[in-house]
Specification:
alpha/beta; TIM Barrel; nine-stranded mixed β-sheet; 9 strands; 34% helix
Length: 362
């Protein structure tokens, strides 16, 4: 119990084995240092967690309800010992998801994945045009490496999706990527909208008014099948896309940074005040999850009275804001509404069909 409330289960750990990356993507929301190694992996740096350390964290998390691990970064495959990290998690029967730029393949990766395959891999690919992708990623050859990686995933029978980030409403670019994803055997194409955080200085929603943004999202929603996943709040998507409801399980996750520090996710890379302490001592994870002030603040903000339009939205509880950490980045509050929701509400463009009936009629 926490303040009289039942402690939520810790279902998912976001594990960041490396804080740096081998690419220089201009839209990266965490602004990692560049390894400078091109397409070569590196060994662990002083102070970084080991696979064995992760194993002890996983054992403690299991007692709190752990079901899965997402390896992300930085670039998780940058480390030569990533296969050992994967084996620690997968060997415990956890569901494993990996987010990667698809340009690195540490020795032994495919051997481990053949015996302990991940449930899902998300491969970042921003354009069907190799030159455009390499320009956005700041590294020549990144597109061909990522496509080769996707091909090996397909051959191995590992489900994967492509994830593209867009900084402007470019429908032809999305169409080209959707066709490429289908030809490549990807299960889906996720479309992320660039945020003005980290290395990125201008977000998608900084460049166009709310009505134009909503029209672009409507065209994405109605023009493409369910294999295209626009990363926007559910209030702006048609009902077929809402099964299952797209949301961030922020109340049931915790991030582990490369030095073993706990945070909500990777947010502490750019907002160190959201760090919650090192997971080095036995019992540290349980103490943090049970009573850390930041987690208590988050739970109160997302389960108590919500501001508009969340208070009037039929998804006000289930979507738990689109991304609480981006809301914090923008406003300093975990419970602030998603930017698109707030702007649509202010402009009178919030969908009537997504408002609670008695409030919509007043």
């Amino acid at each position: 119990m926490t303040d009289g409330r039942v402690l939520p289960p810790l279902k998912l750990l976001y594990v960041n084995p490396a804080g740096d990356c081998n690419l220089r993507c201009g839209h990266c929301w965490v602004d990692p240092e560049c390894s400078g190694l091109g397409f070569e992996c590196r060994g662990p740096l002083p102070g970084e967690i080991s696979p064995e350390h992760l194993g002890s964290i996983l054992d403690e998390a299991a007692r709190l309800g752990l079901e899965g691990v997402k390896f992300t970064g930085g670039e998780p495959l940058l480390r030569t010992d990533f296969p050992a990290f994967h084996a620690e998690a997968a060997g415990r029967g956890l569901r494993i998801v990996v987010e990667t730029n698809g340009t690195l393949e540490p020795e032994g990766l495919w051997d481990v994945w053949s015996s302990l395959p991940p449930a899902f891999v998300a491969v970042s690919l921003d354009s069907a045009d190799p030159r455009r992708h390499d320009s956005l990623r700041g590294t020549d050859g990144a597109w061909s490496r990522a496509m080769g990686f996707a091909g090996r995933l397909r051959e191995a029978g590992v489900p994967f999706q492509f994830v593209m980030t867009i900084g402007e409403p470019d429908l032809p670019a999305v169409e080209a990527m959707a066709r490429l994803a289908e030809r490549s055997g990807a299960s889906s194409l996720a479309v992320n909208f660039q945020e003005s955080s980290g290395r990125s200085r201008r977000g998608f929603f900084d460049s166009i008014p709310a009505d134009e943004a909503l029209e672009f999202i409507r065209r994405l929603d109605t023009r493409f099948g369910r294999n295209l996943i626009p990363n926007v709040p559910p209030a702006f998507l048609t009902l077929p896309r809402l099964v299952p409801l797209p949301t961030c399980p922020i109340l049931n996750i915790l991030g582990v940074l490369p030095d073993g520090t706990a945070s909500f996710c990777g947010i502490a890379f750019t907002r160190p005040e959201l760090s919650m302490g090192r997971l080095t001592e036995k019992g540290a994870l349980g103490r943090i999850w049970g009573s850390h002030p930041l987690l208590m603040e988050l739970r109160t903000a997302l389960t108590g009275r919500r501001p508009e339009p969340c208070a009037s939205c039929i998804y006000g509880k289930s979507c738990v804001v689109h991304c609480a950490m981006q809301s914090y980045q923008r406003t300093g509050s975990f419970g602030a509404p998603d930017r698109l929701c707030a702007e649509a509400w202010s402009a009178g463009l919030f969908p009537e069909s997504r408002r609670i009936a008695e409030q919509a009629s007043t």
